[in-house]
């Protein structure tokens, strides 16, 4: 009887492990498909001669908005301890300015590389709720590696919360810059600096 129970338990464990592995593969394929679809759509918009730059910008950012969790990126960029110091009004203003900053930077990058080939190579689930998607922007004598880091926000919803450009985290860069500003200015002054910076790039 004990032997039967032991064998049954092992079979159950094997079936669970297979189920988890299959779920991981499915999630990898899903997220990889998301990035490929978004990349192809963005490239098609970039090369369309019938659309104005303003129209292209709005469409491209709409695609990016469905792929990324900007609120989480903004919070990670400021850090948990600092985020708690912001009042509701400051949080709202900061989130809006962060999204605007990312939009301007992202669009600038996309338009700069519109003549380059972009290859979405692979997706790897390195934790149960984390997937990394490797993408390359191919230039004539060089390539830029982009690593999109996704997390599972809820069932069947994966969103990117960071991008590593040749190994350098966008979130970490922002956190370093924001920390320096907040060591010098008050929160309201920091927010005003972000606003001025965005306006200067428009």
Description:
There is one protein chain. Helices cover 63% and strands 21% of the residues. Helix 3 packs across helix 5 and helix 3 (70-78) crosses helix 6. The chain has seven helices and five strands, in the order H-H-H-H-H-E-E-E-E-E-H-H. It has helices spanning 2-46, 53-65, 70-78, 80-85, 88-112, 170-184, 187-201, and strands at 117-127, 130-138, 143-154, 157-165, 168-169. Mean pLDDT is 85; it is low at 1-23. By secondary structure, the protein is an alpha+beta fold. It has one domain (2-201): Roll (Nuclear Transport Factor 2, Chain: A), CATH 3.10.450.710.
Please sum up the structure shown.
With 202 residues, the chain is α+β, with helices and mostly antiparallel strands. The protein is built from 7 helices and 5 strands. The protein has one domain: Nuclear Transport Factor 2, Chain: A.
